[in-house]
Design brief:
Two copies of one chain form a homodimer.
Chain A lengths: L7 H13 L5 H25 L6 H11 L5 E2 L1 H8 L3 H13 L3 E5 L7 E5 L1 H22 L4 H18 L10
Antiparallel strand pairs in A: 1-3, 2-3
Helix pairs in contact in A: 1-2, 4-5
The first copy, chain A, binds a DNA duplex (30 and 30 nucleotides) through helix 5.
Chain lengths: 174, 174
DNA sequence: TATTTATAATTAACATGTGAACTATTTTTT
DNA sequence: AAAAAATAGTTCACATGTTAATTATAAATA
């Protein structure tokens, strides 16, 4: 007898629910919750992997985005655009990364409204050290799919995205 | 010329990144972020649909879980189990739902440590009114997939869940 | 050129979630 | 029965995110 999935409690409820509501879109309701459920677990997993380094999935992603920019330097506005996160949150994240000594704030030469966020040496070293570990975790997670399934999953996610995608707005494109 | 996807900024970055890191698991990295990205949009969408009723996706889900329980009544502990959410958060959510007049707190007859959360008449009416609208939104969202794709997507999500699922722990099973 | 408008970053207030510590009970063990 | 352990709910402190308002600067326009 195999142990119950963490999704089981919800499945019992929806089963009961569907019995009383025969016209409910049961499959769609399950898909919605299943998507959320998997997201939550994946997210917890990554945070757990990153916490020994004083990172979480947000701060890690911010470092990677800075690292992926020429000169390892970016404006908060561009970072907000790349992370699809509010400017306010970028300010807070920057505070945190500066506090930890991984990022520096400098005034921009061209535009006195702008700030430049750049990786410190410690920041670069951290990224280089953690990258291979993260790659390994990604490979482990997605190795549950074979080549065809990977292809299918990406295709389906992009199709789903197409249904709900929003116009870009904003003016901070690079 | 079609407008850019909101996922485009990330795709540019990862492209640049992969050029400098040929051994990076590019596809896995994209899948990870794409999953997050779609989650965020789906979530925003649902919150937007629910906000006219003074609901968000959490409070709505809590109401549905109570509604799906015999007698429309549940202990915070069971609700926490069904929602896969901390007890602390259930306390806060309950405060909110009670405040809005949709839920009542009563002492349990059997066990003096326990509380019973039950729907008020207003709560039941709200659920019955919002349910068909939510069903419609679910149908709209997932109608982007045909029958085979729905089947595939659910299969793949469950497979992914299998890779990261956690033992249930806890003692609040029904 | 002077005025208006837009942009960049921040602050303040608040929304939503978590874990640790606490209180009150119930259950288990000795 | 008394002591110990487990369970239910709450409060507190804090993590992580958002929107609205504010300040400074740059760009557009009249």
């Amino acid at each position: 007898m195999n142990p119950l999935s963490s999704f089981q409690p919800f499945e019992s409820k929806i089963e009961e629910f569907a019995n009383h509501h025969p016209d409910a879109p049961k499959r769609e309701i399950i898909l919605n919750r299943l998507y959320y459920h998997v997201f939550k677990l994946v997210s917890e997993r990554q945070n757990h992997q990153l916490s020994p380094f004083g990172l979480n999935s947000s701060s890690w992603f911010a470092l990677i985005m800075i690292h992926s920019t020429p000169d390892n330097a970016i404006n908060p506005c561009n970072l907000s655009y790349a992370m699809v996160s509010s400017r306010t949150n970028i300010t807070r994240l920057s505070d945190e990364l500066v506090e930890k000594g991984w990022v520096e704030r400098h005034a921009s030469g061209e535009d006195r409204r702008k700030i430049v966020l750049s990786l410190t040496q410690a920041g670069r070293q951290l990224v280089e050290a953690v990258l291979p570990l993260q790659w390994q975790h990604y490979r482990e997670l997605w190795s549950v799919f074979n080549a065809v399934e990977l292809e299918q999953f990406e295709f389906l996610l992009r199709k789903l995205l197409g249904r709900i995608d929003l116009p870009m707005g904003g003016s901070c494109e690079e």
